[in-house]
Amino acid sequence: MLFSEMAEEGRRRNYSCSPTAGTDTPLMATPLRKVCNRILRFATSCRKNTAPYGRRIFHRDVEQDEFQYGNTHCLSSYYSVFVVRLAIMAMLAILIGLLTILTWHFTRSYTKKSLNTLASSLRYELLQRPILRMWNILNSTAEITAAQVELSQYVIRRYSKTTIQADQVELYQVMRDVTWALFASRKALNAITINYRNGFVQAFHRDHRSNNTFYIYSDPRNYSINVKEPSDTNMFSSHQAWNDQSIRSNSTAIWYREPLDPTSGEKIGKASPIPPDDLINIAGLSQVPDGVASWHVAVSKYTDSPLLSAALPVWDASNKSIVAVVGVTTALYSVGQLMRELVEVHGGYIYLTSQEGYLLATSTNAPLLTNSTTRPDLIMDVDTEEPTIRMGARWLERVYGNKFPPGHVVHVENANLGKQQYYIDSFFLNLKRLPIVGVLIIPRRYIMGKVDERAFKTLVVLISASLCILVIGCVFILILTNGVSKEMKLRAELISHLDARRRAEASNNYKSQFLANMSHELRTPMAAVIGLLDILICDDCLTNEQYATVTQIRKCSTALLRLLNNILDLSKVESGKLVLEDAEFDLGRELEGLIDMFSVQCINHNVEAVLDLSDDMPKLVRGDSARVVQIFANLISNSIKFTTTGHIILRSWCENLNTCSDTQFHLDQKKMRCAIKPKLRQQGNHLKKACKKENKMIIWFEIDDTGCGIDPSKWESVFESFEQADPSTTRLHGGTGLGLCIVRTLVNKMGGEIKVVKKNGPGTLMRLYLLLKTPADGADLHCQVDFSGHNAVVLLALYGSMGRVIMSQWLRKIGLTTLGVSEWNELTRVLRKLFHARRRENGFDAQCSLNEPLKSEVLNIGDVKDLLFIIVVDVGLLDLSTDIWREQINFLDNFSGKAKFAWMLNHDTPNAIKMELRRKGHLLMVNKPLYKAKMIHILGTVMKERDTEHQKKSSNAARAMEKDGDMHECLEIDSTHFDTASSEESDTAEMGDFNSPSTFHLTDLDKEREEIACQSQCQTLECLIEMADFDAEAREDPGQKNRPNDPFSTATQNECSKLDDRNSETISHKEQVNSYSNKGGNQQKALDGLRILLAEDTPVLQRVATIMLEKMGAKVIAVGDGLQAVEALNCSLRGNVCRRESPGNDGNTGLQTDIQESQSYDLILMDCQMPKMDGYEATKAIRKSETGTHLHIPIVALTAHAMSSDEAKCLEVGMDAYLTKPIDYKLMVSTILSLTKRKA
Amino acid sequence: MDILNQLQRQYTDFTALLYREGFVDENFTQVQKLQDESSPDFVVEVVSLFFEDCEKLVNNMAEALEQQDVDFKQVDSHVHQLKGSSSSMGAARIKNVCIAFKTFCEAQNREGCLRCLQQVNHEHTQLKTNLQALFTLERQIVANGGSIPVMQ
């Protein structure tokens, strides 16, 4: 039920998991599915994390809820992790962004600031220079003009008194020279003009384009002196008239131009007439109306640049009237040139304008003048052909209009002209009558271009760098968080694994507990089945077939029960409920019994079973004998299972420093062991020290077989439950794989260890050691025997070589000469050699084809006189297939006078052989296998016999027989004792299965011996004459009774019939029968005469138990609870005195009368759970009342709990044995018998 | 003779039914086996003892379970006793119910206990009816001079 529940639970878990897998539908697009998968994976890992909370609660519904909760919880936690990651990344991004921007901003702003400062000073400088040039030009012009005026005044004043034409001409000539000197000194001048009052004009003109210099003058003949008399009074009024007239006259006058040498001023060409004012502006009186210097910008036909002209009047001596006007014209060309040069270096545009906006000079080659139809004229800056300047001018106009800031100083940094940005700076030069505005337009990129570019590049680099850092940072964060989350995952997994392990352990524990608790439930029906089968087997009215079937069922049930017991044992150990007994037992005897038991099976398998105990083994040890036997039974049966030919050796030796100096054989083995397993040994040594104190002993065992062996990789795992070295062997050999597991748990429980050890040759070598207490008295009864004084030769004619070798080695060790042969022919040869050679003195060398060592040994022996020959012959050497064996026995009989024969029998040796042997007087027979104890007995018998022979020469065979019988009695008792000692639970049945035949055969062999054995063996049982009818029946129909497969009754009945046939002493044989029938399950009246007090509260059980016991002849007094039991017992203790006062208050008259009749009780069956006073209390009370007396009434517990802990509790309070409910018929009888027997 | 045969067949069928239905098990057979000439009414005796005991225990348990604070320990001991006697008697169904009952007791589950108690009562009544019928048949067979067939 529990299993199915668990399975269901598992299935549910699967279901709860499956939805996650179900979402993985193929409909989903691949990337989406990937993402989903990832999330789900994460979710599942999370769930693993949280699941333990859910699983700890064992209620499944709750668990499912927890699962769902865990699912959502995990998703949310996944998101939270996701969000945290995002947040970290975002923070990183912001940080890096901020850093980037700040860096960029600071670098850029500082650069910009410094650059701006630099740039503005540069601009200022740039603009300053043309303006300075302009200023220079103006200054120089002004100076020239002033100088001319001064010179003119001087010259004119000198000639002012002249009235004649010649003087006038001379004046003009002087003026011309003076002017030329000035003109020549200033190369930059364009022209110097002198306009006399009378309209005469003198001018020097320099054409910069053609690099020619001209002298221009008007025809002097037209001008009279008279005309030159101006009316002072009418100066201002006539001024206009003069002006007009001059103009008029100018227009009408004829002007000449003669080219001059530019350096010397010599006339180099012919004067040619030109129209007036055609070439140059002649400063007239009109330009100096108020008599002060005037400036204006003029244009000329022959220059493409504007000209700056200045005019000053020349005053007469009285300084009242203007006699002439001097005009100086300077080309502004050089300013433009300078600007161009500047711009070439620095870039940008510079231009100068008048205040009105006429362009005076630009840094470009754009024409400054318009070639209109009439005459060239200045153009406005807004109309210039140069687009940049035009745009700049327009921009300025647009922004400022006519309202320029004071001083006309403008600094604009980001004027957007066209598609580019420009710096625009303007300066104002406030000259009198000629204010000039200078404008500088520099493309921004010339100054800031690099900076901007750099800034941009820096920004790009910074941004890319920061992006890289961001990406790397994100990756790092991912890696980091991944690592952390991975670690967390691993941790979670670890936790879940731990939890799973704990749960698994818990469930395993539950399982064990469950099984342990179920043991009662499981065993009860089996016990019932087996018990009922036993009853059925005893039923007489079964047909043969039915009988066979029932026997088969009995066997199967036993097997099933054994399996059950195995499982229960295991679970008992696992759940920690196994309590080991601590009782003294004879280890050697137990092992011998085991080997006896298994040898039957071994012989059937054609496998040799050998027991090799070292001599130093302690005789008695303390421990749980049943468990020790169980260990070896399991190991040996396991070995038998896998061994088809060869041998199985059970070796045992004691952990002792002396052992190393034992026999050669052991020494060799030790060496080998030491070499192979130093570790195990070391451990053993270590243990040994600890053990010495506690009086414990390490005893080593080895099970060595020549079977199929175990693969080294499985050496560990074979000890696991349900584990077999090769799964295929299950089919071949069967078995559950529990045996070795039980063995290991038991060995460990006993403080030992078991291992599979490497072995030379095929097969398996299991080595284990057990920690067993030695009896406190410390008297190590080493059964050291020494036959060396006896001068005996032992001829071992044994079939199995291993046993023979081991035995002969041991015999040699104890001082005996041995010979070993393995087959009949060899035996005959050796015998002939030994005896015939002696007799005839000349050997049968030709006949004897013995191998050399044997031969030499034989010869050695032959030399010694007066030897005692003991020949141990294996029946297997005889040819049993035909009748040859009779002759073989006859042959051997020839030597019976010279040697003592001991026969090794198989369990299936035919009776005929035994009879024959007995007839021939070969009375020394033992069953296979041969081990030390048997050998010692054989030797002892032979020795004793010889002694008696020596003492009484006339000894008869019968006497010897009896002696023999004595010996074999011992042997026999050994085995039977073993039988009962190991009768643990129902294993007995099977063990008995093997064991009993050997016992029976032994008894079968020698009637007398057997009878003696029986007499001593059967103790308490007053045998029943009623059994005679059983015997009689057996006699009547021995054939029917002699069924196979029935080891108990068949053998017993056979026995009976035979014994009857021989007409032996009736009593003894009946005892014998009875003693066996107890084992066989026929307990009729087994308990006759016993008085049993039954304390049981449940009426049903009380009744059943009563009937059961009464059927077996016991007298039962039943009481209802512990208190009554104690009282009843007290009464009986007090005997007759208290008869009258016995408890009658409960109205149990039956009880009263019973008690009144009673003398005392032989045994108490005590239920553990009873009202008023339970079994434990009652036992305590009884034991308490017993203190001081020598009485000890056996108390057997009856309980429904089948745990050994209960058993321990029962034994603790002073009970002697323990029975489980429902009562197992057989077990109850045997328990009761063993207890009452002990008492007897 | 016919009547006897019929009765015997009826008895056999009925017993087989009892086994098949799980009212009784092998232990009952064992109890039956224990009956012989020395104790001719052994089975009836045991069965009636059992029923008495059973009724007493059921009453006790019912009483205990009605209490405000159920003494599960006591109930448990009652159940244990009942289990012991029923398994000895071979009343398999009652024994099975007892096993479940015991687990409920250990879990201190009052509802489960009550349910089990009802079941015990029910099984008990059924078994009683059945066994009474069986014994009646037995008596009839004996009265007719036949022997009681032995179950195989």
TrEMBL record, chain A:
The chain crosses the membrane at residues 78-104, 455-480. Keywords: Endoplasmic reticulum, Kinase, Membrane, Phosphoprotein, Receptor, Transferase, Transmembrane, Transmembrane helix, Two-component regulatory system. It comes from the Eukaryota. Its main location: endoplasmic reticulum. One of its GO terms (molecular function) is phosphorelay sensor kinase activity. The modification 4-aspartylphosphate is found at D1167. Residues 1047-1056 have a biased composition (Polar residues). It is found in: Endoplasmic reticulum membrane. Residues 517-774 form the Histidine kinase domain. Its EC number is 2.7.13.3. It is a multi-pass membrane protein. GO terms for cellular component: endoplasmic reticulum membrane. Residues 1035-1065 are annotated as: Disordered. It catalyses: ATP + protein L-histidine = ADP + protein N-phospho-L-histidine. It is an enzyme of class 2 (transferase). Residues 1035-1044 have a biased composition (Basic and acidic residues). Residues 1091-1236 form the Response regulatory domain. PANTHER family: HISTIDINE KINASE 1, TWO-COMPONENT HISTIDINE KINASE. This is histidine kinase. The lineage of its organism: Eukaryota, Viridiplantae, Streptophyta, Embryophyta, Tracheophyta.
UniProtKB/TrEMBL annotation, chain B:
Residues 39-134 form the HPt domain. One of its GO terms (biological process) is phosphorelay signal transduction system. SUPFAM superfamilies: Histidine-containing phosphotransfer domain, HPT domain. The keyword Transit peptide does not apply. GO terms for molecular function: histidine phosphotransfer kinase activity; protein histidine kinase binding. InterPro entries: AHP1-5/YPD1 (IPR045871), HPT_dom_sf (IPR036641), Sig_transdc_His_kin_Hpt_dom (IPR008207). Pfam families: Hpt. Keywords: Acetylation, Cytokinin signaling pathway, Cytoplasm, Nucleus, Phosphoprotein, Two-component regulatory system. The modification Phosphohistidine is found at H80. Its main location: cytoplasm. This is Histidine-containing phosphotransfer protein. It comes from Salix brachista.
